[in-house]
Amino acid sequence: MNKLYLINVSGQDRPGVTASLTKILATDQAQVLDIGQAVIHDSLSLGILVLAGSGCDANSLLTNIEQFSQQLDIQVSVQPIAERDYDQWVEAQEKPRHIVTVLGRVISAEHIARISQEVARHGLNIDKINRLSGRVALHTDQNKSKACVEFSLRGNPADIHALRADFLSIATEFDIDIAYQEDNIYRRYRRLVVFDMDSTLIEAEVIDELAKEAGVGDQVSGITEQAMRGEIDFKESFRRRVGLLKGLDESVLSEVAERIKMTEGAELLISTLRSLGYKTGILSGGFSYFAQRLQQQLGIDYIHANELEIENGKVTGRVSGQIIDGDRKAELLKQIALQENITLEQVVAVGDGANDLPMLSLAGLGIAFRAKPVVRQTAKQAISNLGLDGILYLIGFRDRDWFDRT
Question: Looking at residue 8, which CATH number applies to its domain?
């Protein structure tokens, strides 16, 4: 007669525990149906679900497990499992799976509690919780630290939009980020990451910096803010802003480029993506002069940006060619994906403004990065509290995955 047992082992971790227990199971001809192991701060937690079939002496198995527990001075519990419960467990594995990624400078017990409560309230089960970030020293500056915990969930939420809204509310309340994704094959097989440039890859709006040099900073800044909030048409606002730059000396472009800083985590993110074979691109409503410099510094594969027209060493107040607005960014994203022979599900798009929303909605993973409120609320995913390298967590990487490659 078949018997099912759930064996739970806990205690001080040491080499050979798993080997010793599974050797006992092998000797008694038990079949392993499920197994999971975790070690936290040298404390072991091991669970094995076994089937003691007709060729297995269940009494002998239980006696040997008891001796194993005493010899290694480790806690072992053995719980009989009813076949109907096992059958229900098998059926449950067909339910959809989801990933919730929690990011912040620090993740507290209250954060975990609130998120777990919402998960349960929306009818989802937590299968696993993993820490993706590295261990942090106790005296680390919290302004520079990174923390990431990943929940693996199973089930069907009754209202996915309500769940996302609840997560966004918690994220806003506690200054953390919560990303909710379907756990499918594409999540770990993204192949292309495209970025907006201004206020995404770099910590500035270039046109505002140029406007300051031209003495029209307040005028241009006001138009920029309206455009980023989606209050006025991007193309029209862009023409008006560029027109105010007329007469600016060409040498100012180099001066501005020298003082602009890259966003936190940009270099680590791009270098890691490149080492793993990802393609990268810049799709920007800014200027190609600055995008080309970033391409050289970071090794970006594709760049598409506006060409600022210059004649006789002076800015004319016009751009050459088609203005790159939100719709054009989406078109370019599709073109690059087609050229790389990948699906849109394999694309990650990152941006901060309203003109980035078309490409964010088109990509398999669209991320609003340190975005305006309207963009953060519209995009499916958002990162506001970490640097760009936080994107690696959303793809599913742990700190050790990329640190081991450096």
Answer: 3.30.70.260
- CA dist., res. 180 & res. 118, Å (int): 12
In the chain, the amino acid numbered 58 is: A
Which region, left, alpha or beta, applies to residue 91 given φ > 0 means left and ψ of -120 to 50 means alpha? alpha
Tokens of 339: 């050229």
Is residue 404 scored above 60 in pLDDT?
A: no
Residue at 109 is within a domain? yes
Is the Cα torsion angle 20, 22, 27, 30 positive or negative in sign? positive
Residue 190 contacts residue 269 (beta carbons within 8 Å) = no
Same structural domain, 178 and 197: no
pTM > 0.70: yes or no = yes
Q: Which of 298, 318, 297, 299 is nearest to 307 (CA)?
A: 318
Where does a domain end: 150, 182, 214?
Answer: 182
| pLDDT at residue 80 greater than cutoff 50 | yes
pLDDT, one tens digit per residue, over 328-341 is 999 999 999 999 99
The three state secondary structure string of 127-151 is EEEEECCCCCCCCCCCCCCCEEEEE
Tokens representing residue 124 in the block: 């989802």
Give me the active site residues, please.
196, 198
Which CATH number fits the domain that encloses residue 387? 3.40.50.1000
**39 shares its domain with 146:** no
Q: Name the helix (H) or strand (E) containing 114.
A: helix 109-121
Whole-angstrom distance, CA of residue 284 vs CA of residue 252: 20
Quick: pLDDT tens for 120-164: 999 999 989 999 998 777 766 666 789 999 999 998 888 988 999
- Burial of 4: CB neighbours in 10 Å, binned 0-12, 13-18, 19+: middle
Domain holding 135, by residue range, is 96-182
Strands 75-81 and 43-52: unpaired
pLDDT (0 to 100) of residue 141: 66
Residue 248 per-residue DSSP state: -
pLDDT digits (tens, 9 = 90+) for 16-38: 889 999 998 888 888 999 998 88
Q: How many domains does the chain have?
A: 3
Side chain identity at residue 300, one-letter code:
I
- Residue whose entry in the numeric block shows the structure tokens 């004649």: 311
* DSSP 8-class letter at 246: T
Question: Do 266 and 377 fall within a single domain?
Answer: yes
Q: How much is the average pLDDT of 241-251?
A: 94
- Tell me if 198 sits within 8 A of 356, measured CB to CB: no
Number of Cβ within 10 Å of residue 353's Cβ equals 24
